[in-house]
């Protein structure tokens, strides 16, 4: 007869192991910061992907001797490596910009608690500040106005989404400001259908949503019959209204994480058109930042070309000749000038680099207007791959 297992005792043992793991994670993080400190004088890049791959292969092999699946080990340590890289970058940036470091920051974002902009703001500053003073806004224009007037230190703005594309309003507004882009963060978007009370999908008659989530969940919504859409200024506003109504016939599109702040429950999960759905946010401030040499940088440029055949192509050829990778090109109409467009270009290069300085100079003759919107660290960390033979 097998020995009877005590579930409570097993859970206590797991809890103790989890606490030990957290202590080890904290110790490992402290050691990686020492690595960053050693790179200050040597000006070595933050990432060494060959070493990362070798590390993962060693860990996978050792994990197999312990009965651990290769994919399990890989996923855990890819997350740990990403955390290490971002923490090292944050540390080096604090050294490069000592005048703007503060334990407390104020940030304006769209909506209120629970919005995707709120979640992105807290995620970004979790490595950079001990306290965040929040300022929820009803529009992108209000966010920019609060930063420009000095009411807040930073503004968090969504700039593009993998499902619905560029956020045109942000592109149109940012060209008229004196602000600089000083950071970016990519926020996973996991749209759910949230309700305030226990109900079923066939009872839902009204769905509250911001325009962007609505567009990103159009396939799911098209399948629903006799449902009315109530558009809201932000996802947080939509969640607050549904929470207040406490009605079994209404729901809201939002994140499960944000919904918890309003005591909402997920009726349907993963309702976005694309399962891999992400929004890239940019952080704006009144002053530009310096990007440490060891950190991969991105520079945002806005320009208007001459009305001549091939003018934009000439600009892009300059970037190619300088070996500068362009990772984003977006066009927007120039207000008051029919059929003329402004181009937003993101390149993977530090503004202080000789190549980019030369490129901007050589592009100028082909443009009527050119302006650098900001140079900032690349926050998206591509996971180091492992050869399939090792998995």
Present the secondary structure layout.
Elements: H1 7-42, H2 49-65, H3 70-96, E1 104-110, H4 116-125, E2 131-137, H5 140-148, E3 154-161, E4 165-166, H6 168-174, E5 180-188, E6 191-195, E7 206-209, H7 211-216, H8 218-222, E8 228-231, H9 235-245, E9 250-255, H10 256-260, E10 265-268, E11 278-285, E12 297-305, H11 311-321, E13 326-333, E14 341-347, H12 354-363, E15 367-377
Parallel strand pairs: 1-2, 1-3, 7-8, 7-9
Antiparallel strand pairs: 3-4, 3-11, 5-11, 6-9, 6-10, 12-14, 12-15, 13-14
Low-confidence stretches: none
Return the CATH architecture of the largest domain.
3-Layer(aba) Sandwich
Overall pLDDT: 91
Q: CATH-wise, what's the superfamily of the largest domain?
A: Periplasmic binding protein-like II
Number of domains: 4
Radius of gyration: 24 Å
Q: What name is given to the CATH topology of the largest domain?
A: D-Maltodextrin-Binding Protein, domain 2
Task: Tell me what you see in this structure.
The chain is α/β, with parallel strands linked by helices. The chain folds into 4 domains: 14-97, Chorismate mutase (Chorismate Mutase Domain, subunit A); 100-189 and 278-285, D-Maltodextrin-Binding Protein, domain 2 (3-Layer(aba) Sandwich), CATH 3.40.190; 191-268, D-Maltodextrin-Binding Protein, domain 2 (3-Layer(aba) Sandwich); 297-377, Alpha-Beta Plaits (2-Layer Sandwich), CATH 3.30.70.260. 39% of the residues lie in helices and 25% in strands. It is built from 12 helices and 15 strands. The chain has helices at 7-42, 49-65, 70-96, 116-125, 140-148, 168-174, 211-216, 218-222, 235-245, 256-260, 311-321, 354-363, and strands spanning 104-110, 131-137, 154-161, 165-166, 180-188, 191-195, 206-209, 228-231, 250-255, 265-268, 278-285, 297-305, 326-333, 341-347, 367-377. Strands 1, 2, 3, 4, 5 and 11 form a 6-stranded mixed beta sheet that branches. A 5-stranded mixed beta sheet has the order 8-7-9-6-10. Strands 13-14-12-15 form a 4-stranded antiparallel beta sheet, sandwiched between helices. A hairpin with a 7-residue loop joins strand 13 and strand 14 (341-347). Helix 1 crosses helix 3 (70-96) and helix 2 runs antiparallel to helix 3 (70-96). The longest helix has 36 residues, at 7-42. It is globular, with a radius of gyration of 24 Å. The protein starts with 6 loop residues before the first helix and ends in a 14-residue tail after the last strand. 36% of the residues are buried. The mean pLDDT is 91.
């Amino acid at each position: 007869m097998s020995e009877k297992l005590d579930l409570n005792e097993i859970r206590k043992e797991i809890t103790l192991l989890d606490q030990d793991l957290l202590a080890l994670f904290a110790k490992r993080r402290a050691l990686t910061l020492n690595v960053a400190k050693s790179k200050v004088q040597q000006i070595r890049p933050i990432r060494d992907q060959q070493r990362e791959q070798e590390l993962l292969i060693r860990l996978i092999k050792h994990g197999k001797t312990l009965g651990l699946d290769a994919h399990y080990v890989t996923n855990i340590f890819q997350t740990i490596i990403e955390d290490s890289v971002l923490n090292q970058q944050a540390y080096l940036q604090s050294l490069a910009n000592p005048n703007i470091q503060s334990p407390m920051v104020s940030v304006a974002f769209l909506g209120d608690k629970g919005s995707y902009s709120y979640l992105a703001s807290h995620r970004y500053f979790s490595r950079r500040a001990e306290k965040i003073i929040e300022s929820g806004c009803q529009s992108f224009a209000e966010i920019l106005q609060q930063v420009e007037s000095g009411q807040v230190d930073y503004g968090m703005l969504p700039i593009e989404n993998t499902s619905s594309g560029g956020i045109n309003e942000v592109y149109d507004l940012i060209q008229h400001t004196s602000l600089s882009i000083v950071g970016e963060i990519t926020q996973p978007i996991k749209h759910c259908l949230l309700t305030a009370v226990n109900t079923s999908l066939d009872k839902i008659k009204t769905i509250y949503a911001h325009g962007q989530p609505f567009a990103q969940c159009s396939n799911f919504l098209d399948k629903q019959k006799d449902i009315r859409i109530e558009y809201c200024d932000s996802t947080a506003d939509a969640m607050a209204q549904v929470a207040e109504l406490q009605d079994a016939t209404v729901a809201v599109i939002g994140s499960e994480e944000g919904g918890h702040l309003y005591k909402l429950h997920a009726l349907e999960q993963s309702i976005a058109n694309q399962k891999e759905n992400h929004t890239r946010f940019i952080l704006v401030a009144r002053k530009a930042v310096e990007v440490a040499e060891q950190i991969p940088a991105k520079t945002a440029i806005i320009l208007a070309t001459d009305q001549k055949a091939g003018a934009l192509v000439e600009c892009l050829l300059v970037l190619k000749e300088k070996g500068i990778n362009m990772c984003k090109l977006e066009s927007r109409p120039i207000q008051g000038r029919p059929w003329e467009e402004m181009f937003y270009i993101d390149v993977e290069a530090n503004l202080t680099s000789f190549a980019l300085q030369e490129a901007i100079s050589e592009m100028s003759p082909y443009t009527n207007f050119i302006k650098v919107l900001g140079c900032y660290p690349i926050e998206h960390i591509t996971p180091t791959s492992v050869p399939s033979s090792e998995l």
